[in-house]
Amino acid sequence: MSDEKLEILEQGDLSDEKSVLRIRNLVVKYKTFQRDVIALTNVSLDVPRSTIIAIVGESGCGKSTLGYSIIGLLPRPPAEIGGGEILFQNKDILKLDEPQIVELRGTGISMIFQEPMTSLDPVYSVGQQLNEAIDVREKRKKRRAGFHAQVDTSSLNPSYAPPGLGQRMAGSGVSSIGRRNKKYSEEAIDALKRVHISDPERVIDKYPHELSGGMAQRVMIAMALIEKPAIVIADEPTSALDVTTQAQVLFLMRELREEIGTSILFITHDLAVAAQIADQVVVMYAGEIVEQASVEDMFHSSLHPYTEGLLKSFSHGYKDEGKIEAISGDVPNLKYLPSGCRFHPRCKYAFARCSVEHPSLDEVLPGHKVACFLRSPSSSNQSN
Amino acid sequence: MQVEIPEKKNEEPSTKRTRRVPFLDTQELRISWRIFRSSYITLIGAIISIVFIILALAVWLSSNKILPFDPYAISPSTILQAPSLHHLLGTDDLGRDILTRILAAAPIDAEVAFSVVGSAVILGLLIGGLAGFVGGYVEEVIMRVTDIFLAFPGLVLALAIVASLGPSITNTILALAPVWWPSYTRLARGETLSIKSQQFVEASTAAGQKNRHIILRHIIPNILPTLLVYATLDIGNVILVFSVLSFIGLGAQPPIPEWGLLSAQGEQYLRSAPWYPIAPALTILIVAIGFSLFGDGLRDALDPKVRGLFS
Amino acid sequence: MGLVTYIVRRLLLIIPILLGTTFITFIISRVTVPNPARAWAGPHASAAAVAALVARYHLKDPIYVQYVYYLRDLITGNWGLSPTSGRPVLYDLQLFFPATAELAIAAVIVTIIVGIPLGIVAAMHQNKKLDHTIRLVYLAGFSSPPFFVALLFLFVFSYYFNVFPTNGQLSTNLVPPTRITGLYIVDSLLTGNWIDLRDALWHIIMPALALALTYFGIVTRIMRSSMLEVFRKDFIRASFAKGLGSRAVVYKHAVRNAMIPTTTVLGLLLGSLLGGTIVIETIFVWPGIGYYATQSIESLDFPSVMGITVLFTLGVVFANLVADLLYGIIDPRIKV
Questions:
Q1: Predicted-assembly ipTM surpassing the 0.85 threshold
Q2: Are C234 and A118 spatial neighbours (Cβ–Cβ below 8 Å)?
């Protein structure tokens, strides 16, 4: 077991793996008093390095649940992993125990949230919280250096490694945050500069409630810059911002990808935003992926009726403007899912097979997957 | 080609009513019962509370005849006996059976507790409801006055009033009421404000209903449950304060049995007959906890989030 | 909002509260009493003395006039004459005050040391056995009359096991330390009087514990619910996402934030403690204001009782003020 722990701790080096993250057949349920809510059904996704993937869908489609599952922040109970695996650096992170997951967060897998102002602790200054991020990173580096040294000089018998080292260490993200003196490291100020905050010396002393939404989100991105994760999950990071600030933050996130090679899973309900930032787009509905393609293919030649409906429901620059239409009907209740294809009750192309059999996600064109009998008549699986 | 979409299997249940009154229809009552039944602790609290009320009623209605001994009969030959089969909790310094005295005190504590809490609820409902409903200057004045009463430590205020009026049970009730009515006024006003802004009240007003109708049919039934829940929690608290007042000499006067007074009378015998002062004090603890747990359970039963889990 | 603005606003708020509460104590002192003159003169006063009192306190004048004189008297320190001791009430209060202050401070310290960690633990184990146990314990605490724990302790530790002294602040064979503050523990510490210090500490343990164990629930309950609320906040989630472990998140972030609303309960705590000291001091014969109160009640000394009422009420009003000011200082959203 210690060997495996060693491998997990050795992160940060983007090895020759093509994919940063591989999700295989993930099933997530929420237990309630009566029926279970099936939040995610057989979700599979490969995230390549330095790629921005937008995960798009209406509220309740499971996109946020997906994000939380990856970083291990699902509230369980009531949430439960019903099956599948998530491979990060060749390890199934769903099987890790809490201290190991803690080791991964921040420096391996990071997450930024929708409301940036409330994502910062109101009683500590910006600088103190940035220092905290630096501390997390430095402490991990030291630990790994010391750990390696230990293994090198010992007789290579894994049992000489202090038992439960991973466990003990993971709990102590103790940091310089307690220090009252406002001496912030150069690096913290530097990080603020890199996210284009003009006047970082002033901002660094400020408390979160004194910042604007855009500024706060930039601080969050600065923390990601400091910790250099391999993948950042961004859960609707621009939904709470106005359009101009939104553009700035999106720009910053692209820079993040350029500067440290991180991949971004950009969760949003806003297709327009997805269009601006993504390399690939994944469309989710009722807990499943229904279509996946490059951003150009998705917007120019989408295949799934739901995607078509989404594209028609707002105006964007990619296609000829037709009439704006809403998709009729409502999103299904995840406790009482429709039989067969989950979208069939609202689909104008639905035929008999759609209500009986459940389509699987097939690659019908290179790099373009869709789960629909209209497009891939041969596919079928009974996973309902 | 359009196809008839077949009937959905797996129908979801119909949406709940949005009206908040939890006790006035059977489905809501069923949910309340389910919640109540699910917690052992709440049930224990309920049992203690009900036993207390029944005992108090029984003793009062039978004018103490139901008790094993006469709580007032002095018997010099049986002074300060240790607990035995005959006197389950021993006897006091005047030979009276302690268990009997404790039971005899039940109706007295019950009377004080229910009078005080009852009047607090009614006063709170009226005054607080008025403040919430009418708003404006009236509301401001009422809330300021409430704040001033709330600035006093409860026991101290009651103490002062009883000291000025003279110690007796009636005066104690009069002294305790001002300590409790402010909280209920605040509560009632807050609830009234939140009910007032709910849609069905606005709809009612738009439909031209008179104010009086709105108050009686909409507002009062909706704020009363919350007030009653807090009243249940408070019964124990009143008994606590009343017992302290009696302990220090205000409140019930000898030879009337009252738990706090009994403890005070027994204090000097703590060394030789510890059961004498401790038993009545323990009784207070049990009864107060009972009502506390019961009230907590009731409060959970009213909480919309909890109701959602049990529906 | 700015700390200064906050402080000024809060101080201004004190004035109507002080006026309001003194008005009520006035009503209790002079209006609701069936025979104010007799009550203030004492049950054994002569008719002449009573008449003199009526003149002195303007008891025949209309209420609003009386109130003005009452206020004036309060402010100038004329809180009445105690018929039992013959001394001004305020003077008597000053004699007994330090002992109560000492006991109250000790009780508050124990309450905080016990109450806050228990609240944190209860929150971290929400709805599990530990949480339920803690809640039951503190519920039992503030559901018990203050004399319950006191009598129990007294019996077990003083009579049965003979560990702690049964009464007083200091053993009768010892000389109290030189009076600097009036608080025996502080004074003996300041004067290096180790014998007195040890003895005084030994005496204060039981009364302070009895008080604290009865009322610690007030602090634990709010600390627990405060922690639970903080746990739901976004920045806790974000701290985990940053890679912090549970220990850091709880102690560096959650506790720090949860403490802020907890300060608001200081006034409530002191109010309950002061009420409790009346009982505790009586049982442990602790020479403080609570003890003075029961003596006054027994001897029908109405002026003293009213003096104590005003004193305790002022105490609570100022405790609330301090709590609010503290809140303003530790919450950066107000400070900056």
A1: yes
A2: yes
Half-sphere CA count of A166, side-chain side, radius 13 A: 19
CATH classification of B40-310 is 2.40.160.10, yes or no?
A: no
Structure tokens at C30: 């002079």
Interface test with A, best of C230, C237, C242 (most A CBs within 10 A): C242
Tell me if the bond preceding A48 is cis, omega within 30° of 0. Answer: no
Chains that touch C (3 or more CB pairs under 8 A): A, B
Q: A205 and A182 in contact (C-beta within 8 Å)?
A: yes
Using CA coordinates, name the residue in chain A closest to B3: A351
Instruction: In chain B, count H helices and then E strands.
Output: 12, 0
Which residue, A181, A94, A171, is CA-closest to A136?
A171
- Helix then strand then coil, in percent of chain C rounded to 5, is 75, 0, 20
Domain ranges of chain A: 3-278, 306-370
Tell me the nearest-neighbour CA distance from A345 into chain B, angstroms: 7
Q: Does B305 touch chain A (CB under 8 A)?
A: no
Looking at the complex, does the CB of residue A226 fall below 8 Å from at least one CB of chain C? Answer: no
A105:C249 CB<8 A: no
Q: 3-state class of A107 per DSSP?
A: coil
| DSSP-based three-state secondary structure for C268 | helix
| Rounded CA separation A17/B296 (Å) | 56
CA–CA separation, C20 and B240 (whole Å): 27
Find, in chain C, the residue whose alpha carbon is nearest to that of A70.
C241
- Residue ranges of chain B with pLDDT lower than 50? 1-19
Is there a contact between C309 and C28 (Cβ–Cβ < 8 Å)? yes
In chain B, domain spans: 40-310
Query: What topology is assigned to A3-278 in CATH?
Result: Rossmann fold (3.40.50)
Provide the sign of the torsion angle of the four alpha carbons A17, A23, A25, A26, taken in this order: positive
Which of A3, A29, A167, A31 is closest to A101 using CA atoms? A167
Coil/strand/helix, residue A233? strand
- String of b and e for A237-255 (b: at least 16 CB within 10 Å)? bbebbeeebbbbbbebbee
* Global pTM value: 0.84
- The angle at the Cα of A368, spanning A366 to A373, to the nearest 5 degrees, equals 115
Nearest to B250 by CA among B170, B177, B154: B170
For residue B129, the number of C-alpha atoms closer than 13 Å in the C-beta half-sphere is 21
- CA A240 to chain centroid: 18
Alpha carbon of B232 to those of A349, B44, B185, B189, C80: distances in Å?
60, 14, 16, 19, 41
Give the distance from residue C141's alpha carbon to the nearest chain B alpha carbon, in angstroms. Answer: 9
Distance from CA of B219 to the nearest CA of C (A): 29
Q: How many residues does chain A have?
A: 384
Instruction: Report how far residue C144's alpha carbon sits from residue C142's, in angstroms, rounded to the nearest whole number.
Output: 5
Strands A37-48 and A19-30: what pairing?
antiparallel
Q: Tens place of pLDDT for every residue, chain C, 336 residues?
A: 578 888 888 888 889 899 999 999 999 988 888 888 888 887 777 888 888 888 877 777 888 888 888 888 888 888 888 888 888 889 999 999 999 999 999 999 999 999 999 999 999 998 888 998 999 999 999 899 999 999 999 888 877 777 777 788 787 777 888 778 888 888 888 888 888 888 888 889 999 999 999 999 999 999 999 999 999 999 999 999 998 988 889 999 999 999 999 988 888 899 899 999 999 999 999 999 999 999 999 888 888 999 999 999 999 998 998 888 888 888 888 766
Question: Helix, strand, coil: what percent of chain A each, to 5?
Answer: 40, 20, 40
Of C124, C32, C131, C20, whose CA–CA distance to C71 is shortest?
C20
Residue B245: HSE in the Cβ half-sphere, 13 Å Cα cutoff? 32
CA dihedral (A364, A369, A375, A376) positive or negative: positive
